[in-house]
Amino acid sequence: MLDVVEGAFLTGNANKRAWLRIQAPSPEELQLVAERIQIPMAFLLRRLEGKPARPFVQEEGFLAFQFLVPHHHHPGSSTFDLLPFTLILLPGYLVTMSQQPIALLDQLIRPESPRKRWELVLQLILQVAQRYVRMSRDVSQELRRVEDDLRQAQRVAVIYRALDVHDRLLELDLGLLQLEHLLLAMRPWVPKDSEELRELLEDSGIELRQARDAVDIEQETINGLLNAYTYVVNNNVNHVFKFMAALIILATIPLFIPGAAAMNVPLGNFPHWKYGFITVTGGLILVELITGWVFYRIGWLRLQ
Question: What is the fold, at CATH topology level, of the domain defined by 1-113?
Answer without folding.
Answer: Beta Polymerase; domain 2 (3.30.460)
